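In this supplementary section we document a worked example of the pipeline. Step one takes a protein sequence of length 229 as its only input; no multiple sequence alignment statistics are reported here. Step two produces a three-dimensional model, which step three serialises into structure tokens for compact storage. The input and output of this example are shown verbatim.
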Amino acid sequence: MDVPVYNMQGAQVGTFSVDEQALGGSINAALIKQAYVRYHSNQRQGSARTKNRRQTEGSTRKLYRQKGTGNARHGDRKANLFRGGGHGHSKKKTREDFRPDMPRKMRRKANRNALLAKLVDQEVRVIDTLGFETPRTRAFMEFLAAIKVDRSALVAVACDNEAVRRSARNAEDVTLCCPDQLNCFDLLNHRYLVIGRADLEAWLSGPSSQTGKEAKLSPMGAAGAGEAA
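The serialised model returned by step three reads:
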């Protein structure tokens, strides 16, 4: 598959060849969904709690006398029948684990397959050299318009590229990430992916390319450090 490469002005300056078989060959929707649900679940803290009648703030005064009013018997307004009262069975678990497990090789395959889906839909913008002389949000918005990015975009740019990061941090519907942190969750949550040619080459040939036994026998990188496996 040949992917067009653009410059900062939106003109095509070449093509970039991507091996579809290295990205899974065909789109595996079930695998992508499994990884997406995992990434989504891992964002939950699992620390939700609710207050019981004793922990709810307010007066403990009895609402009205016990007999003779024709109403039901009540004490204070903290009962769970009243709005603003405590919960009858309050949640007290301090931490719950919502982290489903998924093998690393499957996660890597899902990430690469999600990129293949983006390439098939022509929603990847590969830039020859991504950079600005000085940070400027207007220049970044003009750059997105030049490469025909009119919806939400995930911009994969090096962490030390301060000019681009400072230019894009105030842009609407734009999310920044490091190139080695690409994952299917962020890819599917945005319409377009904007990435430099060198960064895409490094990601395709980096630790994410080890989706077989070599991932355990001869892993690339420092034990997965800085990697969104």
